[in-house]
Amino acid sequence: MMRIKPYDFMMKYTPQTDWIEGHGILIAFALFFGGISGGLYLASLYFDNLVGMFVAWILAMATGMTDMAHLSKPMRFWRMVLKPNSSWISRGFILIWLFLGCAAIQLAISYWAPGTAAETVFKVFAGIAAFGVAIYSGFVVGYVGAIKLWNSAIIPILFVVAGLTGGMAILLLASQGETTRQIVDVATAMVAVLVVYAVSVAIYLWITTYESHVARDSVMLLLKGSIAPVFWIGVVLIGIVVPIAIIAPYAFTEAAQTAAFIIGAVFAIIGGVALRYVILKAGVYAPLLPAE
């Protein structure tokens, strides 16, 4: 772990470590689980895939558990819900539990009494909560004004798109037992979402370079600095280029290619984890005193 001297905050860029090193790595996984669970549930609603909805529920539970594990005193987790008027962490925790409750009821109704009005109502409630779970992590990061790379209005949108991309990847894995037509439809949607995801990443980095010199330097750290290998290999190559190259040739045909779809989906999920990692890792605090 990097040692930060007290005067570093005064004289030079200081990397944040609370959310990425040691015990803090749990935050990166919580952001990933939150985005992917919300995205998976929304994708599963669209394709009416009950297995995907159930997996999204499990991932949302993992989000809550990971958040609690990060606390120094996990048994006091209930205090996280006491400040929804001022804390996005508090709002996110509430959204997670609302989603878990609504989705659990919806899953039970969908399994034992499908097609009823109650099922539709709880799908709507759970869908709204799922969107909240997907986007709240972006607001948690974007609310940190001291780290200019994060403090961007577009980062919640990026996190939603990233969550939907990861959710589509898991749905593609969960759809392998469905008909060929259904699998191909999910694969086609997956390619479209990957393209939107790639554009969103590019727009986020481009806009952020104009936010401030600190934000621009953080972007350069991502593109050319010590974090660049993880960004270019993990996010761009493994998370975007390879999945599109593997999935696209079969996504617009009538023949599903199981091996290609599974490999592409797994790579996209790995890329989603890498995206959260590089954004958290590249976050730096600006010096309090200007450099001479």
Strand content: under 5%
Strand order of the largest sheet: 1-2
Which oligomerization state do the chains in this entry correspond to?
single chain
Tell me the major beta sheet.
2 strands, antiparallel
Shape: globular
CATH superfamily: Formate dehydrogenase/DMSO reductase domain
- What's the N-to-C terminus distance? 28 Å
pLDDT average, as an integer?
84
CATH class bucket: Mainly Alpha
Helix content: over 70%
Please count the helical segments.
10
Which fold name corresponds to the CATH topology? Formate dehydrogenase/DMSO reductase fold
* Topology as a string of helices (H) and strands (E): HEHHHHHHHHHE
Question: Can you tell me the number of structural domains?
Answer: 1
Secondary-structure arrangement, i.e. CATH architecture: Up-down Bundle
Uncertain runs with pLDDT below 50, 5 residues or more? none
